[in-house]
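[job 4417] fold queue: 2 targets
>>> target A
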Amino acid sequence: MTAITVAVNAHLLSGQAGYRRAGIHHYMTQLLRHLPLDGLEATIFTNDDGRELADTGLTIRSTRWPTGTPYGRILWEQLAWPWQLRQFDLLHSMAFVTPLAAPCPAVVTVYDLSFLHYPDRFPRFQRHYLTSQTRRSCRAARRVITISESGRQDVHDYFGLPLERIMVVRPGVDAVFQPLPAAQVEAFRRRESLPAQFLLHVGTLQPRKNIPLLLEALARLDRPDLQLILVGGKGWLYEAIFSQVTALGLESQVRFAGYVADSDLPLWYNAATLLLFPSVYEGFGLPVAQAMACGTPVAAANVAAMPEVAGEAALLFAPDDVDAVVARITAVLDDSHLAAALTAKGIIQAQQFSWAESGQALAAVYQSAL
């Protein structure tokens, strides 16, 4: 049997530290690393050096085009890439948009439709480009991949695609996200000068993450020794976050840790008392699953994919309800039995998210598309 040849656009892979290495980069890297190649030949097109995909059996093709910029990436995928696709059975665009002049059948991954739900929270060009081209790409593709059932329903509702053309390939949770030895966590706590208790948020600083809600809750708590630590790089339209910290007089209680190394992220989760995830919309919400895998209690917004990820293992709240956030924080801080129950439930819940199963699901999408 002749192997299926697939060309994969993975130009959002990033070799540089920063917010682009979170989220989509992590999903792409782990999914491709776990893609089974039985009956499949995959060529990965990227401007990254491909070192994270070494020894996988994947073919890496880098380009000199400046695809690290949005305009350079758009020009490459619309003008240069189609000429290289004629030898392939299938193309897979791993981030929203397929080429207009695709010479072979296409699969496209849509992580979320936040630009349709909350258009005012995106820069104008990004919003218009994603809206028009994601709709076109989904309607033209043989199969559309989403990362949650919530996202699958969104694509169906907004673009009118039949559900049978939309397939879910969920993220997994890496084995490094687990409860760590107390001595290792304590050494990390000393290294980072962390208090015995603190609240944690993990995510890029951008409007959709709804961080102002956390700042308002922290101000209302009236616990001056309690810190909120924000782990994540600067994305876009984040200036209001810094302004609100100053306006609420929280300079001594809020710490911006910035983008952190992948190797340190499990330690941040393990050291935290509670992960807060108030996003107004998520295609999945990987920090929720990662924190639960580390045994960290979680309180998250009850919208989009977050309830799907959290199951019965987290405390939920409406993303506009400051009082509910205050109540969830207080409950975990003051009730050790509740915190322990959330830890136990979270570890079990996180076990359902497997990268090996995700890789198998992606291979099944390729087979289905042809």
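>>> target B
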Amino acid sequence: MWVVSDGRAGIENQALGLAEAVGRQVPAEIEVKHVRWPRWLSRAPTRLIFEPRRMLGDGGAAIQPPWPDLWIGNGRAAIPYSIAMRRWSHGHTYVVQLQDPVRPPRLFDLVVPPQHDRLAGPNVLPVLGAPHRVTEARLAEGYAAFAERLETLPHPRVALLIGGRSKAFDLSVARAKAMADEIDQALSAGGSVLATFSRRTPEAAKAVLAPRLARHPGFVWDGEGPNPYFALLAAADVILVTEDSTNMPTEAAATGKPIYIVPLEGRQARRARFLQALYDAGVARPFEGALETWSYPPLRETDRVASAVLEALEHFPKSGNRFSD
């Protein structure tokens, strides 16, 4: 099977997570393909890219036959290829497109958007959040790599996953100071902080938060060396995630641990719907400076989609592929 995206980590990991979930049920080889558009076409509507291998040139050099049995595309750059793949393969490749492609779902075999996009159709399978790569095995492996640094830390261990600036949200210096105060309040009786920043975190906000968080036992990842992300999720008793992300709270929800959503500046209706769905499911709560403990069944949306893909492949009329044997 092929995983196709523009290579950005957040986009690629969703598609790769679904491919890996399929591979856990039926052994399969995964090939990662990156496609990119020339700068002059970067803002063009995807409907105008009707012949992507010719129009995008070297941006799709990796997309050549023999075609895969299963194609999992994600992100805007992959959409023209996903649409064309059904034609190129003469219907022998089952095409899955993640997120809302903003094109008619009938152009794909299966579309897997987040529930909060409110997309519907006979071949649309909405999910709470997004597919991801978090599994019990990966969490255990991540923890083992950092065990010496984590095992002596006091409880409660609070993982803090910090995003930042996007089209709808921002993390100002003032909000960073307030966030640090809220963490201090939550850990006033003791505990430790395991923090990581994203590439969206403004440097000014990071400069405020990093030293403040470092006053507590634990560690703040500075971006150097191996990424402790899975180790933080595995070690945490409670997970705090800023509200700008869809991937991070969904990944955190795979642990079954309490999740608090930390507010930023700004608002987006789609994100508000997503967060409300997490609250309604008992997965997350708004963070207001206090920590409580609760439990819920770990969110397994990625495995659910993988099972649906494999079931569809069993009945795929033009398949003849090894997934349906």
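[job 4417] complete. Note on B: The chain has a mean pLDDT of 92.
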